[in-house]
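Question: what's this shape?

___
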Amino acid sequence: MIEDIYKKFLECDGIVSTDTRNILPNSLFFALKGANFNGNLFAIEALKKDAKYCIIDENIEENEALILVDDVLLTLQKLANYHRNKLGVNIIGIGGSNGKTTTKELLYSVFSTQFNCFCTQGNFNNHIGVPLTLLQLKPDHQVAIVELGANKIGDIKELCEIAEPNSGIITNIGKEHLEGFGNIEGVAQAESELFDFLIKTRGFCFVNIDDFWLNNMSKRIGEKREYSIHDNNLILKKQVPAIVFDWNETIVNSHLPGIHNFQNIVAVIAIASHYGVSESNIKKGIEAYQPQNNRSQFIKTEKNFIYLDAYNANPSSVMAALITFKELNNQTQLAIIGDMFELGKFEDEEHQAIASFCESDCNFEVILVGNAFAKTRIINSNIKIFAKKEDAMQYCISSKFENYNVLLKGSRGMKIEDFKTVF
C-alpha cells in the first residue's frame, strides 16, 4: 500500500498539503484529524482547489482521486519513512530541552557552506511536523538536520522510528514540559530515547559532557564524540552582547549571546568537524548566522536596546537568559519575564524560584507578568508584578523608559514580544 501511495506522491512531484486554506496545486492532500477538526470533511474541497489526490480514512464517496486508508496520520508517517529510506540522506537528529532550534539553524548555516543541506522549517518537530519535513527532502540533498520535539515519554522514540537518524545530539537536559514528563528524571528519560535509538542502530552520538545527565548517558554509548565548552582549543573571549571566542588561534565573532549559546556553538563545531566541514567554513557559517523569530535577537529601537528571546520559556531557559543579561552589568537594565507554561504541579515552585532569583541576584529592574508570577512573594521594590500583560505594558508606556537594555522572555502563549511596541 505504501509503495502505491509513494507512486502517487511522486506523481505530485513530492508536494504535500494538509490544510485547504493554503493548499498547493497538484499536491497530495492528507486529511488529518485533530481535537477540533476532521480533514476528511475537506477532502472534496481540496480536490476542487487542485489537489491531485487525497488520503482519507473515512469513506466519503467513490472517486479515483480519493485514496482510503486505515489511518491518515500513520500513512503520512510511513510514507515519510519510506521516502527517507529511498533517498538515503544522512540525517542528524537534534533533541534536548533548550537550544534545539538555535543549534539546528546554526548547524544549517555551517553545513550549507559545504553541502546541499536541508533542515526542519520553523517548529515542525512533532509527530506531524517531522514526517512533513522528511517529505520535503530531494534526491540532491546530502544532509538533513531534523529537530525532534517531545512533550511526554515515548515521543522521541516514535520520531526516531520515522526519521531513522544516522547521528544525533541532545543539547541538554532541563526543566521542560514538566507537566508531561513529571520531573527532571522524566525529561532525561524522554530525551535519552534519541541516544537509545542510535545505540540500537549503531548510529553516532554527540554528547555534551558539561551536562550532568548527558555525561552519565555517555558511559553506555559506543560510537560517540564528546564535547565541552572547556575544550582547550576553545577560549571564550566575550559572551555579551554577542559571543566572541578563540578557536585554534582564530577569532570567531558570532551574533549569539550567553554561555548557553556558546554551548550550542561548541556542539555545532563538534558535529560539523565530524562530518568533514572545514574550519574556515565552520567559522564562515557561525559568523553568517543571524538569530531571528524571537530567539536571541538584538533589536535597536529609537529609544532602547532590546534582547528578544520570547519564542518560548521554561525554568532552565529563563535562568540562562537572566544570567546572560546580568553580564551586561549596565545600570539601565530592565527584564520583563512572562509566565512559564506546562509546569504542572511545579508551577508555583518554579515561578517562585525565578522571582526569588530576581530578588536576590538581579541588580536591575524586573517586571514579572502573568497569573503564575502574580502568586509569587517578593519584597524587593525593584520588582514589579502584573497579572495582566496589558497592565504591565501600560506601566512601561507611562514610565517612558529610554536608553535601557531590555530583556523580553516568556512562554509562547504569553507573547511577550508584544512589548517591543512600547520600547
